[in-house]
Amino acid sequence: INSFFQPVQQLVQLYTQYQQAKAAVGKIRGLLSTPPSVRESPTAVALPPVAGEIVFDDVSFGYLPSRPVLSHLSLRIAPGETVACVGPTGAGKSTLAKLVTRFYDPVDGSIRIDGHDLRDVTLSSLRTQIGVVPQEPFLFAGTLRDNLAFARPGASDDEVWAAVDAVGLRELVERAPDGLDTVLHERGQSVSSGERQLLALARAFLAEPRVVVLDEATSNLDLRSELRVEAALDALLEGRTAILVAHRLSTAMRADRIIVVDDHGIAETGSHDELVRSGGRYAAMFDQWAASAGRPPR
Ligand code: ATP
């Protein structure tokens, strides 16, 4: 009897696993693709391939009418430019990133990508050209390949490996029991926090977006992992427009331009060297950070 039922049991188990995986993927897709508060206009058109110029034109936004987060903010990011947002907790850095990916619409003013108001283009066409790397990258129960190719399900093995190489993860994948077919467990407990971030960068890489919006993870990495993440980030951002919500000044320092978000807008803007020389808020943040990180002051 046992041997008769075993395959059935296995089938039932498999089916349950399949259902769970399907539900997980559905949930994640839902999270990524359905912004909580925006609606696609019935006249929305597909965004043509962009060079990646992002313009904030006098943008005001608040989650609640009584509490403005950003007010009259204007900013132009050139194609290929990397801009890092720094500033105190709660200043609105992540909010700025969410507006670019159209998770919310401005209350006033407009955001344009290559001259197209975000509200005039379809969400799917926008999302294929803007890659988002969230603060807590998710991994789902599925193979490494599925996790990596999530944003581009038809990717070939060569393309997946190219992304793996770009972020320096070949060794990890080759060491895994079944290579790209290794099954990750939900929440990816088997993957370290540094590796998880690298996988998220590889995933973004594979999607080949023109614009990258990255909310930097706050988890502390050991120095080796941090250097690996920085190198992978450099590879990913090469030739792309990027907005980084930088929690580490070591990341901000590497951007073409830094904006200090505070008091509902951009309090300071410039390159690392310019801001350090001007002796304002960024310079003070940098001194404080350098002291705590044991790095030489400016
Ligand atoms: P941190 O450095 O802590 O990540 P941040 O600069 O990214 O901060 P935001 O996350 O953009 O700040 O938040 C800006 C303000 O908006 C904060 O006062 C925050 O409490 C509020 N806020 C953020 N998300 C929501 C939300 N979904 N609903 C209501 N208020 C929110």
Short description:
By secondary structure, the protein is an alpha/beta fold. It contains eleven helices and twelve strands.
Description:
It is found in: Cell membrane. Residues 54-288 form the ABC transporter domain. This is ABC transporter ATP-binding protein. With 298 residues, this protein is an alpha/beta fold. Strands 6-9-10-3-11-12 form a 6-stranded mixed sheet, sandwiched between helices. The mean pLDDT is 87. The chain is 41% helix and 20% strand. Bound molecules: adenosine-5'-triphosphate (ATP). Adenosine-5'-triphosphate is lined by residues 63, 69, 87, 89-95.
Overall, the morphology is globular
- Whole-number radius of gyration? 21 Å
SSE order, as H and E? HEEEHEEHEEHHHEHEHEHEEHH
Which distinct ligands sit in these coordinates? Answer: adenosine-5'-triphosphate
Task: Give the strand order of the largest sheet, numbering strands 1, 2, ... along the chain.
Answer: 6-9-10-3-11-12
Helix content: 40-55%
Count the strands? 12
Strand content: 15-25%
Cα end-to-end separation: 76 Å
Q: Please, how many helices? A: 11
Q: What summary fits the major beta sheet?
A: 6 strands, mixed
Give me the secondary-structure category: alpha/beta
- The average pLDDT score comes to 87
Low-pLDDT parts are: none
Protein name: ABC transporter ATP-binding protein
Subcellular location: Cell membrane
Organism: Paractinoplanes ferrugineus
Domain ABC transporter: 54-288
